[in-house]
Write a structure and sequence with these properties.
Layout lengths: L13 H18 L26 E3 L5 E3 L2 E3 L2 H7 L8 E5 L5 H13 L5 E3 L6
Parallel strand pairs: 1-4, 4-5
Antiparallel strand pairs: 1-2, 2-3
Helix pairs in contact: 2-3
Length: about 130
């Protein structure tokens, strides 16, 4: 008796097609999360703009000295007390880079305890 040669069973490729399809959908969705900018838009260049520190901000030097508009300030509480009520909603601090973090946090807490609603730290923007 002659036996018929056994045929190799075909590989089922449907699961592989499903995985590839799901990956395709994932990359389509991930690639369209951020809307592209308008092609005709030209962004502003700020490379040559000279900036100065805000005049209404409390400057804290590396040794802990406080100044405002070039004049010495006795304490954070005294600075807040001198400001009008409208300015107390958002008070700004410009710390020196070498100022210890504990000192900066202490000054911020003292300003809030004296009546400042929100204390904002002004920093240099890194690119």
């Amino acid at each position: 008796m002659n036996r018929k040669p056994r045929r190799a069973s075909a590989e089922n490729t449907i699961p592989l097609i499903n995985i590839v399809f799901l990956m395709l959908i994932f990359f389509l969705v991930a690639g369209t999360l951020a809307a592209p900018l308008d092609k005709e838009l030209t962004l502003v260049s700020t490379a040559e703009i000279e900036t100065t520190a805000p005049a209404d901000a409390l400057v804290v030097h590396a040794d802990g000295r406080l100044t405002w508009r070039g004049t010495a300030v006795a304490s954070p509480e005294a600075f807040v007390a001198e400001q009008p009520d409208a300015a107390r909603a958002r008070m700004r601090i410009i710390p020196d880079r070498d100022l210890p973090a504990e000192t900066l946090v202490g000054i911020g807490r003292a300003m809030q305890a004296a009546g400042a609603e929100r204390v904002v730290i002004v920093t240099e923007r890194g690119l």
